[in-house]
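Blackboard transcription, Thursday session:
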Amino acid sequence: MARGGLLAEYRRAWVKLVRDPSSAIGMVILTALVLSAVLAPVLATHPQDVWDVHTAERLRPPSADHYFGTDRLGSDIYSRILFGARSTIFVAIVAIVASLAIGVPIGLIAGWSGGLLGNILMRFSDIFLAVPQIVLAIAIAQTFGPSIENVILALSATYWPWFTRLVYAEVRSLKNEIFIESLVGLGASTPRIVVLHVLPNVMSPIIIRSSIGMGFTILTAATLSFLGLGAQPPDPEWGRMISESREYLPFAWWYAAAPGIAIFLVVMGFNLLGDGLRDVLDPRLRRKVEK
Amino acid sequence: MSAPMLSVQQVSVDFATEDGTVHVLDGVSLAVGRGEIVGLVGESGCGKSTLARTILGVLPPHISTVSGGRVVFDGENLLDMPHRRLARDVRGRRITLIPQDPYQAFNPLFTVGTQIMDLMRTKSPAPGGLSGRARKRFDRDRVIQVLEAVNIPSPAEALKKLPHEFSGGQLQRLMIAMAFLPNPELIIADEPTTALDVTIQAQILRLLRNMADREGVAVIFTTHDLATAYQLCDRVVVMYAGQEMEDADTDSFFASPRHPYTYGLLGSIPGKNAEVREIPGEMANLADPPSGCRFRTRCARAEVRCAEARPPVTECAAGHVVRCFNTANEQVAT
Amino acid sequence: MTDNPVILDVAGLAKHFTLRGPFGRVRRVVRAIDGVSFQVRRGETLGIVGESGSGKSTIGKCLVGIHEPDAGDLLFNDSSLLGLARRDRRRVARQLQYVYQDPGASLDPRWKVGRLLEEPLVIHADHGAAERRELVRAILGAVKLPDAFLDRYPHELSGGQQRRVGLARILTLNPSLIILDEPTSGLDVSVQAAVINLFKEMKAAFDLTYIFISHDLSVVRILCDRVAVMYAGRIVEIGDVEQVFEDPRHPYTRMLLNAVPRIGRPGARREIGGAGDIPAGEEVAGAGCPFQPRCAERLPRCAVDEPLPENLADGRGVACHAVAAP
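(Written on the board underneath:)
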């Protein structure tokens, strides 16, 4: 039996989430990611290697001293991966928060007002959807120079329309719900209805989308860094590290493997969590289960 | 009544849900004679649709189990019959269905004619030896003949139309025609008039009655409206919380109802000038039904024994059975 | 009750819907309601009955401003509801409330009952917080629900309790006229009986006037004082419930009443009601009586001349040439 409102619902969702094996794995991975980012200086065996260069020890295979081996400049890859988690989380969170901040209000306004304004807003968001992320990012990097900040700019500029579309569709269907219609009849103001009634009812899909979006954003950010459009050396960015390792791939497999596995795990973690969230939060699926 | 054509004997069905096992049907029995229209009356959640599905063998898979009883149709227990045979020989051929919502019963992309002819090809017996074109011509003639019988104007034209070109009432006529086409012995009509306006409902009921009489087909008609059952049916079975509470031929049922739940239902029908009386409480929770009689928590005449033991199904008059200790109940004025 | 002041005066109300094809081409104009006039007096219950597509719900929606009528006037307490500024409309809206088919569905699933009941008062901002809470408790008591329910969510209540809360929410605004739109459709009879009794209780307790829109004639009969029968967007007969139900004059009213399944006296011959087979109701555009293609009593002039409602000697109005003709 369902019980409680938004908070209680999320508490219930949390319990289900922990019990679901795949989303539990997702959460373990993501917890590990956050811990590595926060505790990087403590966990790192060679914290100074983010900047330091030891040419004598370059391209050493994994060993007790260097868990994941060393790179072309002799820096400890394990330590660099830990510090790389920081920029990964930073990029994902900032890009998603920015996308939410742009996409959700536009979706709410477009969905609620409909008509000409709604159409204009949706077509406007379509323009951004139509431009491939990589192409836009290259353009932005060309214009403003390659940097992490510009990667975030490119990611936000291309990801927010997904939230707009999602919120738009949810609001359109909510608008036909009787409890929303009756508020109009009671004389409630539009901001009141939209903020206090519509928004809480579209929170769940937004959360699901955000989780999946984080994984997607990380992957794209890595791609951009791989192309040299993102983080600049010596930043320990995962995508960059793979890019650097290309020349050494035939004889230094660990160089590419460590950041590659890190990216793979984190993206999978967000996707598993997103799927798990969808199972517990998405009312459409839930209704099916109950029937 | 001689040996009934369909007899449902002590059928129990359980559904597995998040709240545990729900006993949706609990020892239901009823019988349908040849050419008889039996009204299965009850409120939502009483199990009437589940019973209809049990007979048709289309209970939702995985979550439902038939935990007891027999459904004997023409001497054979349908619950034991292999699914393939049930689907091929019985369902849609000897037992057909008129669904509640005709809009959902048709595929919107194909013409009504395509869908009906398809049904004829797979379900309707053709006279021996007919095949190919001849078979098709024979089927078509029969379809047109039945469409005429259900008052579809210009049937040949109607077959070329798409479902959305018909009104709700007309679609329901088509559904009735389709139910009669395979020459079935039993039709299960699952609230076929609930979605319709009263004037259309009256036409559909009359049509169903006439067709059933003409073709000698038995009908199980589920409804939540006692007045409809009164007008249409030969027998009325009232169900509550997965059990039949009262089962009698229509005249005896309405002349001297015996079960307190029946009084409750009759009392809550808006009459000429009487007040309506609601039945107190809510439908029993089937995951955890009350001990003894399932209706006792809402019954004005509940006694101690009603909680202690399950009331027996007693025949209080010829062909009039009631599931209550107090079979000498007097009818209350309605 | 006939001496009570008129609270609502509907005069010549019309609402047309234009169905447009691709590129905004007008395909068809549907006259959902046309020339509808009636009055509602304080304290009475007016039933509006008709089959689907008769326009009965459109009337309700015009009254509360969901639809803007194309013609006619709506006078509520002698002042027009049309052409009001948004703010004035809102002030009037407090007095005139619309209850959805299932009042329980009008509750936001994520809000607690207490907050839901308070909301209309917050929207209209005319009480202090303490006063509001006091009022909410009083209303909850009036619909016979315990205070403990204030902290519950709608889905923790039964269907009947949700319905009470939904109704209570509207009553907090102290409306004088409530429009009930098909509140009993789709309900089981025992639940329906509870709903009918709830409406009766509320009417007595809060001194309400109802417009009760329904397709169910038997419910209208026991709940309403007067009834308007609609067909194809027009009122074909309007009068006291007893008059109309005991002695229907319009051929459509007769057909409709005849079709309602009814349980007869013991021993009576059971038969299915309704006149013989009626041609499917194709609504004809243009002149003439809209019911004339289905009518058993049509006269030659019915095909060319649309009958207007005329008052009979007993005070009811009927729009039919066959009835009006001496």
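Lecturer's comment: Residues 285-291 of chain A have pLDDT under 50 and may be disordered.
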